[in-house]
C-alpha cells in the first residue's frame, strides 16, 4: 500500500461557480428525514446543515422545487477499482485516522428521494495512500427507502497535488453513473487544487472526537414521486438468465437481451438494474 504517484491534478471541470446552498437543500433533507423521524418538527436537520450556508444569504424559498443543479461530475482519477465490498463501514480494527461519518440523501431533479441508488466510495487512508492491492477504504452501498445513506470511514489523508477528498460513484437504477468527489471545508489546498469545486463541499462538524459530514446528491434523473419504480412500463422482457430479486456475487455470469454479462459487484438484483443499465454491476462479455 505504497503511495503511488497521483495523477488527478489535470484539467477537470475546475472550480465552478459558487452555487451556494439554499434553503431548498435544507428542506429537501428535512422532508426526506421526516418520513422516518420527526426531524422536521425539531429543525435538527436544518440546523445540522446550516453551517454550510453560514455567511451566505439564504433564499427564503419555502418549498422544494426542481430548480437545483444536479451534483457536478468530476474525474474518476487513477485509483478506482471495481468490485468493492458491500459495506457502509470502511473502518476496521486498528485503522488509524480521525473517524468520519458521511450521511445524506440522494435526490432526483424534482426533489424526490431516490431509493436503491448505488453509491461506491473510495478514498486514501490516513497517510494519503490508496489500497490498490485490496479494498481498504473502498465500499459500495445502496440508499434506503428514504433515499438516505450513511458511510463510516476516516478523514482521508492528503497526498501530493490534491486537496482532501473522497471519491464516489452514484447510480440510480437504470440511470447513468455519476462520478464525482466530495470535499472538506476549510482546507488550505482547496484554494490551489484545480479540480476542487465548492459545489461539492460537505458540511463537516466535530463530533465526539471525530467528525460528522453531510452531503446531498442531486442526480440528473426524474424521480418518480409515485412509486419509485422504473418509469418504463412493463414490456416483453428481453429474456435471459438474469432475474430480479436474486443475490449475485462477483464473477457470476448471466445472459440478458441476447448478451452475456459478468457480475462485478455482489448485489441483490432488482427491476431497473438489468445488466445493460448498470455498468457498475455488470460487464458485458
Ligand atoms: Fe483521489
TrEMBL record:
<protein>
    <submittedName>
        <fullName>Dioxygenase</fullName>
    </submittedName>
</protein>
<dbReference type="GO" id="GO:0005975">
    <property type="term" value="P:carbohydrate metabolic process"/>
</dbReference>
<keyword id="KW-0560">Oxidoreductase</keyword>
<feature type="region of interest" description="Disordered">
    <location>
        <begin position="222"/>
        <end position="248"/>
    </location>
</feature>
<dbReference type="InterPro" id="IPR006311">
    <property type="entry name" value="TAT_signal"/>
</dbReference>
<dbReference type="InterPro" id="IPR036573">
    <property type="entry name" value="CBM_sf_5/12"/>
</dbReference>
<dbReference type="GO" id="GO:0030246">
    <property type="term" value="F:carbohydrate binding"/>
</dbReference>
<dbReference type="GO" id="GO:0016702">
    <property type="term" value="F:oxidoreductase activity, acting on single donors with incorporation of molecular oxygen, incorporation of two atoms of oxygen"/>
</dbReference>
<feature type="region of interest" description="Disordered">
    <location>
        <begin position="55"/>
        <end position="92"/>
    </location>
</feature>
<dbReference type="GO" id="GO:0008199">
    <property type="term" value="F:ferric iron binding"/>
</dbReference>
<dbReference type="GO" id="GO:0005576">
    <property type="term" value="C:extracellular region"/>
</dbReference>
<feature type="transmembrane region" description="Helical">
    <location>
        <begin position="26"/>
        <end position="48"/>
    </location>
</feature>
<comment type="similarity">
    <text>Belongs to the intradiol ring-cleavage dioxygenase family.</text>
</comment>
<dbReference type="Pfam" id="PF02839">
    <property type="entry name" value="CBM_5_12"/>
</dbReference>
<dbReference type="InterPro" id="IPR050770">
    <property type="entry name" value="Intradiol_RC_Dioxygenase"/>
</dbReference>
<keyword id="KW-0812">Transmembrane</keyword>
<keyword id="KW-0378">Hydrolase</keyword>
<dbReference type="InterPro" id="IPR000627">
    <property type="entry name" value="Intradiol_dOase_C"/>
</dbReference>
<keyword id="KW-0472">Membrane</keyword>
<dbReference type="InterPro" id="IPR015889">
    <property type="entry name" value="Intradiol_dOase_core"/>
</dbReference>
<dbReference type="InterPro" id="IPR003610">
    <property type="entry name" value="CBM5/12"/>
</dbReference>
<feature type="domain" description="Chitin-binding type-3">
    <location>
        <begin position="239"/>
        <end position="285"/>
    </location>
</feature>
<feature type="region of interest" description="Disordered">
    <location>
        <begin position="1"/>
        <end position="20"/>
    </location>
</feature>
<keyword id="KW-1133">Transmembrane helix</keyword>
<keyword id="KW-0223">Dioxygenase</keyword>
<dbReference type="Pfam" id="PF00775">
    <property type="entry name" value="Dioxygenase_C"/>
</dbReference>
<dbReference type="GO" id="GO:0004553">
    <property type="term" value="F:hydrolase activity, hydrolyzing O-glycosyl compounds"/>
</dbReference>
Amino acid at each position: 500500500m505504497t503511495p503511488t504517484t497521483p495523477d488527478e491534478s489535470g484539467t477537470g471541470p475546475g472550480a465552478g461557480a459558487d452555487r451556494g446552498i439554499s434553503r431548498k437543500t435544507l428542506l429537501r433533507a428535512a422532508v426526506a428525514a421526516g418520513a422516518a423521524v420527526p426531524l422536521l418538527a425539531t429543525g435538527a436537520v436544518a440546523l445540522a446543515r446550516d453551517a454550510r450556508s453560514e455567511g451566505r444569504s439564504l433564499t427564503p424559498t419555502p418549498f422544494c422545487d426542481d430548480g437545483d443543479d444536479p451534483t457536478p461530475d468530476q474525474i474518476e482519477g487513477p485509483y478506482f477499482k471495481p468490485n468493492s465490498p458491500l459495506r457502509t463501514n470502511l473502518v476496521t480494527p486498528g485503522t488509524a485516522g480521525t473517524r468520519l461519518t458521511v450521511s445524506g440523501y440522494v435526490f432526483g431533479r424534482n426533489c424526490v428521494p431516490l431509493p436503491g441508488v448505488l453509491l461506491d466510495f473510495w478514498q486514501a487512508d490516513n497517510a494519503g495512500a490508496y489500497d490498490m492491492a485490496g479494498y481498504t477504504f473502498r465500499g459500495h452501498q445502496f440508499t434506503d427507502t428514504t433515499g438516505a445513506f450513511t458511510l463510516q470511514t476516516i478523514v482521508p489523508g492528503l497526498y501530493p497535488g490534491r486537496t482532501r477528498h473522497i471519491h464516489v460513484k452514484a447510480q440510480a437504477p437504470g440511470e447513468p453513473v455519476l462520478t464525482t468527489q466530495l470535499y472538506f471545508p476549510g482546507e488550505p489546498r482547496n484554494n490551489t487544487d484545480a479540480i476542487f469545486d465548492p459545489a461539492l463541499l460537505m458540511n463537516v462538524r466535530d463530533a465526539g472526537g471525530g467528525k460528522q459530514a453531510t452531503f446531498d446528491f442531486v442526480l440528473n434523473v426524474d424521480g418518480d414521486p409515485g412509486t419509485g419504480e422504473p418509469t418504463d412500463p412493463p414490456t416483453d422482457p428481453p429474456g435471459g438468465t438474469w432475474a430480479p430479486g436474486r443475490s449475485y456475487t462477483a464473477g457470476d455470469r448471466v445472459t440478458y437481451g441476447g448478451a452475456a454479462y459478468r457480475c462485478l459487484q455482489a448485489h441483490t438484483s432488482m427491476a431497473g438494474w438489468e445488466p445493460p443499465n448498470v455498468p457498475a454491476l455488470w460487464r458485458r462479455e
